[in-house]
Specification:
By secondary structure, this protein is of the alpha/beta class. The chain contains seven helices and seven strands. The chain has a single domain, classed as TIM Barrel (Alpha-Beta Barrel), CATH 3.20.20.70. It binds iron/sulfur cluster (SF4).
């Protein structure tokens, strides 16, 4: 039975889609390395009611995180509904882990639609330039994909209380250049471990 919600320390993670707007070379989903006891491979995408029912057994969490094996913001309307509902019902912080491609996917700036119900975006920057980004993330938007993630971080930093730009420490990545870019866009910076599939 696939897992829709699971807790790690004080955070409750939601797995609402396996679709993604990138195809990163280091993706644990694509490499089928999970290192995780949860089965995050979904047969079908859960409805609003199914997501809220999956949250219900948990009580001791301080944060809800849209994460899982996919890009949650592809399901923007569901994310908006669930984020607002958990804010109301649980008075908890809401974070979205994202590839930062949502404005390209939806053809508009969607960040204002989430301001007020989302406290934090953790955005996968993953590269200091378009060429490296394309090599690592295989964006279906081509060079616009890297511009898109940079624009997303900059726009989010203006509207969302906390924005973190993260990179996976793949071999030979210029981490210092990634950090400098993240800070110049108004985000804080986080380095994530690399798991070779
Ligand atoms: S954005 Fe995340 S889920 Fe999507 S392919 Fe990249 S690592 Fe995998």
């Amino acid at each position: 039975m696939p897992t829709l919600a699971y807790s790690i320390r004080n955070s409750l993670y939601l797995n609402i889609t396996n679709r993604c707007s990138n195809a990163c070379s280091f993706c644990i989903k694509l490499n089928r390395y999970t290192g995780d006891e949860n089965d995050l491979f979904l047969d079908t995408e859960p409805s609003f009611d199914e997501i809220m029912a999956a949250i219900a057994p948990f009580s001791d969490f301080e944060e809800v995180v849209f994460c899982g094996y996919g890009e949650s913001l592809i399901r923007l309307e569901i994310v908006k509904q669930v984020a607002e509902a958990v804010k109301q019902k649980y008075c908890t912080r809401v974070r979205i882990n994202t590839d930062g491609q949502a404005n390209l996917v939806h053809g508009r700036n969607i960040i204002p639609e989430l301001a007020g119900s989302v406290d934090c975006f953790s955005v996968s920057l993953n590269a200091p330039d378009a060429e490296t980004y394309m090599r690592l993330c295989h964006s279906p938007f081509g060079a616009a994909g890297f511009r898109g993630v940079c624009d997303f971080i900059r726009l989010a930093a203006a509207e969302i209380p906390e924005v973190i730009a993260s990179v996976v420490r793949v071999p030979s990545l210029d981490v210092d250049a990634c950090k400098a870019l993240a800070l110049s866009l108004g985000a804080s910076f986080r380095l994530r471990p690399y798991y070779q599939g």
